[in-house]
DNA sequence: GAGCACTGC
């Protein structure tokens, strides 16, 4: 079938897919609820020639500007569709087929699988691009895998993405900020480039809303076409996965303590169920460590049959070597139990899992645009997530999923989908990116899901105060455009630009790098004291940022710690460094309450009550004025990464901001 | 004297 239809050529319409082996694949017209076709890959393996699936894909892509693929895990859509398109000639004439993934690791592994299947070396006909790594060759690469964020960045140079004939957006149902932005922008591009084909791969639950979003003209008319006879009505093709069935078990009554319940369920599985590893979903490190401890104690009793349990924690804060333990072969006669955060839901796949225990909760970030505070809270997961978690039990053989909530709750109360990241995040980075792409009417942008207007306004306000947007909400020259080019939080970018004139770029770049990673410290259970002592060795009076700089310098000098006598040098530079930080973070200034006994500060912007986090070197030092990098909210609002400042620097850094009573109304 | 779901450019 490699000589299949050449796109754009004039030829008779292929007939509907007629399957002589029993109608496994069919194409119905007119489509019931805009759904076409159904390909069953599992059956196909035994008795359906591969070209049936290919036929359906190519037919739909040929005649529809947008195709939505509802593909379960293991359906092979990600690896097969790009190959079909290439063979059918979609990558000819110097244009490429692009396939996005939301994660770097997925990009790499999918690309190498496809290269292997096609018998080519990666970086030639099949390539990939992720940040810091470009394995493509111009003129040679035909299928290009990339993260959605990279494709967004590419739009800054080539807004219509003219290099590509087909763009496939995989895992669109995850609704990451980048994916949502990309889909909104792709819809715009389609108006200018009607020949561009989009393939959106999504879970069942999101398919209809995706379809509605891309349905552009002549609503309610399934046969709407554009001038070229191309159907503008998106088509939906569903492809079954080859995962094994997973039996779902619910609790009879709601549980009051899901941690305890998870532990009990693991013990019960070990007692009653056949061999096979267990994966438990809890919400965070603290919970996971607690559950691990309880189970390890049970397992340490050599006389009980629980000694067969091999219990391992899994979360991103673990060191790489600890994370790798979960992939080790389960010793004979043992049952591996991995207790994990959401990292095992999408990012990491454990192959031997047969039993899943689902607490029904995960930690989720919520942003309050009014207070400008991001909260990390334990919240109920969605049905989509629950399904994904359960699916983790069916990779090896038929499995079981134990849900620690009632069926009634699942059916009646659990939300179908999670809230898109777009609607619970700070939008400063997204807004500047859209502005850089020439989208001026941000509030009128056609979002798959509109973010709260308050968040949008807050983002515009912040960018205006940073001098990145002018009074007409357009990017300023050169500052605004420079900041948009730098792939960092705009406040950090502004700091970097300011460092240039203050002559401390090297130091500020180091600090920016440290601020861009989650933490430079590795968490080791029960070794908090040691870590605190090590930190003290690097502590700088100016605050955490300069302390990070010390750490980095120490790293460069690795092994020579006793000879460090940089103190004067650091003091010399500390002032200019702090001013550069302030150029970006002036709006994060806080003042110590004069009569405060407990180190209470109030933010300058909205008099929010905040405290210095105990991990800071300035904890209990309590300088009169500080600027923080971020707020972390638990029982109190804690300032993370704090430097001491002189309040006069604030006026110097942002004279408008500190005199402005109300932000300029023109930007709304 | 407290705490870090997960990604990405």
From TrEMBL:
Matching Pfam families: DEAD (PF00270), HA2_C (PF21010), Helicase_C (PF00271), OB_NTP_bind (PF07717), WHD_HA2 (PF04408)
Output the CDD domains linked to this UniProt entry.
Answer: DEXHc_DHX35 (cd17980), SF2_C_RHA (cd18791)
Q: Which domain of life is it from?
A: Eukaryota
Domain (Helicase C-terminal): residue spans on this chain: 262-438
Q: Which InterPro entries match?
A: DEAD-box_helicase_OB_fold, DEAD/DEAH_box_helicase_dom, DNA/RNA_helicase_DEAH_CS, HA2_WH, Helicase-assoc_dom, Helicase_ATP-bd, Helicase_C-like, P-loop_NTPase
Q: Kindly indicate whether the keyword ATP-binding belongs to this entry.
A: yes
Q: Which GO terms describe its molecular function?
A: ATP binding; hydrolase activity; RNA binding; RNA helicase activity
Q: What is its EC number?
A: 3.6.4.13
> Keywords for this entry?
ATP-binding, Helicase, Hydrolase, Nucleotide-binding
Recorded catalytic reaction(s): these are:
ATP + H2O = ADP + phosphate + H(+)
Q: Which Gene3D superfamilies match?
A: 1.20.120.1080, P-loop containing nucleotide triphosphate hydrolases
Q: Does the keyword Nucleotide-binding apply?
A: yes
PROSITE patterns, per the entry: DEAH_ATP_HELICASE, HELICASE_ATP_BIND_1, HELICASE_CTER
- According to the entry, every stretch annotated as the Helicase ATP-binding domain falls at 58-223
Specify the species.
Dendrobium chrysotoxum (Orchid)
Record-given protein name: RNA helicase
């Amino acid at each position: 079938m490699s000589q299949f239809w050449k796109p754009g050529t004039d030829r008779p319409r292929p007939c509907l897919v007629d399957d002589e082996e029993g109608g496994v694949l069919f194409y119905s017209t007119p489509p019931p609820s805009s759904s076409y076709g159904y390909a069953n890959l599992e059956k196909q393996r035994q008795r359906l020639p591969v070209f049936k699936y290919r036929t359906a894909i190519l037919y739909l892509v040929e005649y529809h500007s947008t195709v939505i693929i509802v593909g379960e895990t293991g359906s092979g859509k990600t690896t097969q569709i790009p190959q079909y398109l290439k063979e059918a000639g979609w990558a000819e004439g110097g244009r490429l087929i692009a396939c996005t993934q939301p994660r770097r690791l997925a990009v790499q592994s999918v690309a190498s699988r496809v290269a292997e299947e096609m018998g080519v070396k990666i970086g030639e006909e099949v390539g990939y691009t992720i940040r810091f790594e470009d394995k493509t060759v111009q003129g040679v690469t035909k299928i290009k895998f990339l993260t959605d964020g990279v494709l967004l960045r590419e739009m800054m140079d080539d807004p219509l993405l003219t290099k590509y004939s087909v763009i496939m957006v995989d895992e669109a149902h995850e609704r990451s900020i980048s994916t949502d932005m990309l889909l909104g922008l792709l819809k715009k591009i389609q108006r200018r480039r009607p020949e561009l084909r989009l393939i959106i791969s999504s879970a069942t639950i999101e398919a209809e809303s995706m379809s509605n979003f891309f349905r552009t003209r002549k609503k309610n008319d399934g046969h709407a076409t554009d001038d070229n006879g191309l159907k503008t009505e998106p088509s939906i093709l569903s492809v079954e996965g080859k995962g094994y069935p997973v039996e779902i078990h619910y609790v009879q009554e709601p549980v009051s303590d899901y941690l305890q319940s998870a532990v009990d369920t693991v013990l019960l599985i070990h007692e009653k169920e056949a061999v096979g590893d267990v994966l438990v979903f809890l919400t965070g490190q603290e919970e996971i460590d607690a559950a691990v401890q309880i189970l390890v104690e049970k397992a340490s009793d050599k006389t009980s049959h629980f000694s067969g349990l091999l219990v391992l924690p899994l979360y991103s804060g673990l060191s790489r070597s600890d994370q790798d333990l979960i992939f080790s072969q389960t010793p004979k006669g043992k049952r591996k139990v991995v207790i994990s955060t959401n990292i095992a839901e999408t990012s990491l796949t454990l192959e031997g899992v047969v039993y899943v225990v689902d607490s029904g909760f995960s930690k989720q970030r919520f942003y309050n645009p009014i207070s400008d505070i991001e909260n990390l809270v334990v919240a109920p997961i969605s049905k989509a997530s629950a399904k994904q978690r359960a699916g983790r039990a069916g990779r090896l053989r038929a499995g079981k999923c134990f849900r620690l909530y009632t069926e009634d709750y699942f059916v009646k109360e659990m939300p179908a989908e999670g809230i898109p990241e777009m609607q619970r995040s700070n939008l400063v980075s997204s807004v500047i990116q859209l502005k850089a792409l020439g989208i001026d009417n941000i509030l009128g942008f056609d979002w798959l899901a509109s973010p709260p207007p308050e968040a949008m306004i807050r983002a515009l306000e912040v960018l205006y105060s940073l001098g990145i947007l002018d009074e007409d909400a357009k990017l300023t020259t050169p500052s605004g455009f420079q900041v948009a080019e730098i792939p960092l939080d705009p406040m950090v970018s502004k700091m970097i630009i300011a460092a240039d004139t203050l002559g401390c770029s090297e130091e500020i770049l180091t600090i920016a790098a440290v601020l861009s990673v989650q933490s430079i410290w590795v968490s080791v259970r029960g070794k908090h004291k040691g870590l605190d002592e090590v930190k003290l060795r690097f502590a700088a009076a100016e605050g955490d940022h300069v302390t990070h700089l010390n750490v980095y310098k120490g790293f460069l000098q690795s092994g020579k710690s006793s000879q460090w006598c940089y103190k004067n040098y650091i003091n010399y530079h500390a002032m200019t460094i702090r001013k550069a930080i302030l150029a970006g973070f002036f709006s994060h200034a806080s003042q110590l309450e004069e009569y405060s006994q407990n180190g209470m500060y109030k933010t300058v912007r909205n008099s929010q009550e905040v405290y210095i986090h105990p991990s800071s070197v300035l904890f209990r030092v309590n300088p009169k004025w500080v600027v923080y990098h971020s707020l972390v909210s638990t029982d109190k609002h804690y300032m993370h990464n704090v430097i001491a400042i002189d309040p006069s620097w604030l006026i110097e850094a942002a004279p408008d901001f500190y005199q402005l009573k109300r932000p300029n109304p023109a930007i709304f």
